[in-house]
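Hey,
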Amino acid sequence: MRSTPAPRARPQRRVPAWVIALSGLVVLAIGGYLAWGLITGGLPTSVPSCSWPLRVRGPATSEQSGLIRCYLRALASRDSGGLLAVADTANTPIRITSAAFAHASDAGAGTATATVVPNPDDDANVLVTIAFADGARQSVSMDLANPESGHSWRLLIGTPVGPSGPPPAKRSP
């Protein structure tokens, strides 16, 4: 009778402590991100800020001015992702179409002047009128995308996607 040799035991590999620690940090970061999304309802709580030449008139905050700078930079470079970043998508999904770039060449023509006028009836809304260096003008509304955060200013730009507003009324019998 022939005996077969016993299989060799594989040496156990030890996972380095730094791999376990890094994995734990990733899990905590993802969990924190998801928890923050639940707390804020997924709405923005901060304003993007960019460097772009701009003169500002009116009682604009630095956050509002920074948002307008980001808008002008994205507009001049025809960056649809940049326009989406400054657009108010909290209540209605939007898309950026070619119509959003109507003032792209104006934005790159030189230093624009933005005049910010608060809405006297709604402190979460301002009207921004942009006078481009080449003489063109554009008016756009800016509002707080997240009513829980005074730091969530966004521009009302883009084309709404899908139905907006309440569903149509049903006739009663």
